[in-house]
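Form P-L/3: holo structure prediction, ligand zinc ion.
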Amino acid sequence: MMSKTHLAVGVAACLAAAPATVEGLSYALMGGAVGSLICDIDRSSERTSRDIKQGWALAFTVFFAGFMHESYTYWQTFKAEHLLSDPLKLVCLGSLLVLYLFAISGAHRGFSHSLLLCVGSAVLIYFLSKQTCLFYLIGFLMHLLLDVLNKKPVRVLFPARGICLGWFYADGLANRILLLLGLSASAGLLMVKFQVYGNILQVVR
Ligand SMILES: [Zn+2]
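OUTPUT (holo model):
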């Protein structure tokens, strides 16, 4: 599927799993934005691809929308020396970069689209940001699920050979339908969960 579809469906799945709190929804947006598109870093050589550019621009917007809520607390407490003096976090960050670099250098839908990278990177992200980890994982798994529906094999069980159901073309009608469903579900879930959050606040008060 195309980038916008991955983003819309991945974020919708994360919002569905998120608790009805502003904090929960913020982390869902942040984790979902990164997790649902990170597999396609193996397409970074396609610098002229409009799909990639639009996908990452939208993912950054969604990430920032989630980050807006957490940013105040984050920058209040963030100190570079905290990261530099935390060997575990440094090792995790370095290992994550190595994993992503390995994914970039591989063929499309190879290691970058594997459960190995999915689980490996999610574990590292857990040590960097516990609250985002689950949503990153959901976004990543949704990306793999959507790509398996296509006609080009995906090496989900890397290093084993790729698999695919061969049902749809990545840029065909199914892609457009899933994009619409993902967008509607994301908008609907955001409205419903904020409404639930508002009702809970009223009860508490
Ligand atoms: Zn993909």
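COMMENT: The CA atoms of residues 37 and 86 lie 28 Å apart.
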